[in-house]
Write a structure and sequence with these properties.
272 residues, alpha+beta, Thrombin, subunit H, 2 domains, 6-stranded antiparallel barrel, 12 strands, 39% helix
Length: 272
Amino acid sequence: MKKENRKKNQVFIFLVVLSLLLIFLNKAGYLSYPKNYLIYVVSSVSSSFQSSSNRFNDVLNTFSQIDKFKEENADLKEENLNIKYELLQLKEMKRENELLRKQLGFSQSSCSVGNCFNWVMGNVTSRESSNFGNSIIINIGKRSNIEEGFPVIVSGGLIVGKVVDVFDDYSKVMLITDSNSLINVISQDTRANGVVKGSYGIGVSLEMINQAEDLVKGNLVITSGLDENIPKGFILGKISKIEESPNKVFKSAEIDLFVDFNHIEEIFVAIK
């Protein structure tokens, strides 16, 4: 116990003497260099830690900014897609309005010759093709007052077919290129009567023209009004080639159609 007390006293005396010595040396200016060096070392270490801390904070801020940019970029992409979709819808609406204006103009001219009817606009939802003909499915039916035999038109008064099957909300249309399609027509200029018959999905031909009737290449071929539910004046195409023989009772002709049947989208059904 006495030994421990003696050691404690010795340590205390040493610390007191050391403190007095340091005070004396400091006042005498002998500790300026060590003190400055110590301050330099401490400040350098502190600065190093501060720099590392700043760099670490910068890295954290960079990752935070990257996440923020990713979120903003995702929002911008979604907004851009929404704008593109809205522009697409507006473009389609504009296109449909232009089609309606054209068709209404055709309707008014038809009324002037006694062919007044209402238009119901629809869209092609599917196509059916075979070796014997063509047909399309449209998205209007009985609920839109569609009936079998009604003519189906595209913009500009061009007839493409007639309704053959009707359901509540859709209908089947036999195109004029179908091998079973027959439509009574006349040549607009010479008034020659005949029948346009489908040619197995690849076109149509003008047939049953009396040899005494005149046909002129380039003349328009239009509906004659002799078919039930098909008004007079719808356009099919123009005569491109005339085939006649004195040994035959009738002559025929090839017709260039004005419609690309592979790209029909919107249609109009004429309702009396």
